[in-house]
Amino acid sequence: MPEQTTQFHDLANQSVLITGGGTGIGAALTEGFARQGARVAFIDIAAGPSLALVDRLAGEVDHAPLFIEADLTDLDQLRTACARADEAHGAVTVLVNNAALDDRHEFLEMSSDYWDDNQAVNLKPVAFVAQAVAPGMIAAGGGAIVNFTSTSYMLNIGSMPSYTAAKAGIVGLTKGLAGRLGPDGIRVNAIAPGWVMTERQKRLWVTEEGLSAMIERQCLKRPIEPADMVGPCLFLASRASAMITAQVLIADGGMM
């Protein structure tokens, strides 16, 4: 990951919780916050990459990230994981809801069970992780929640309607939580990435033709990398954005 040239000093020693923090964008976020001196806990279901990330960072940052293995579709596991983060680092004051699964699916063949399972990954945990950490944030006097949505729901993409519905729902949830938690000093914002070149994307869906077409639509003519999401997230988590809440920051190279 490129070195972060901006230091947000108020993030040092903050208790940060990141969902889906072991791979892709999430791993870049885990590293980015750890390099700010934050005490990072991250939840993921993929133990191998997550443990490798912790091992790699352990000797390079002040506080090695804490990996918490949990299935976020299981509310008991979700709540236990959030409690572990609180116990390890103190009340979570920065929450990054990043976990997602952008499987493609055919609308005309979509079952009720598929819809429920997909929403259970992509939307429901955003609400219930926030619910789990909010009391600690309130007791601490405030905090910041950053939810990852996507530009995909704005583009009329037909190959993943449940996913794009969830990502649109995250925007509504972000605004609702900002209204509810703002009086408690908690800011809630969202980031909408463009097509980020994670290893999963490159393995499953990226073609030379498709990537070229996307870059042609962008103002900035290069692929978007996971590390490109770190700066916007650090900004929204820090006091640099002290009066910003209920907003969606689009980070797509100017494609929209």
UniProtKB/TrEMBL annotation:
InterPro entries on file: NAD(P)-bd_dom_sf, Sc_DH/Rdtase_CS, SDR_fam
Highest taxon in the source lineage: Bacteria
Q: Which UniProt keywords apply?
A: Oxidoreductase
Tell me one Pfam family matched here.
adh_short_C2
- GO MF terms on file? oxidoreductase activity, acting on the CH-OH group of donors, NAD or NADP as acceptor
Sorted alphabetically, which Gene3D superfamilies does this protein's record hold?
NAD(P)-binding Rossmann-like Domain
Query: Keyword Oxidoreductase: yes or no?
Result: yes
Q: Does the keyword Hydrolase apply?
A: no
Position of the signal peptide: none
Which family is this protein grouped under? Belongs to the short-chain dehydrogenases/reductases (SDR) family.
State what protein this is by name.
Answer: 3-oxoacyl-ACP reductase
Q: Which organism is it from?
A: Hoeflea olei
- What are the leading ranks of the lineage? Bacteria, Pseudomonadati, Pseudomonadota, Alphaproteobacteria, Hyphomicrobiales
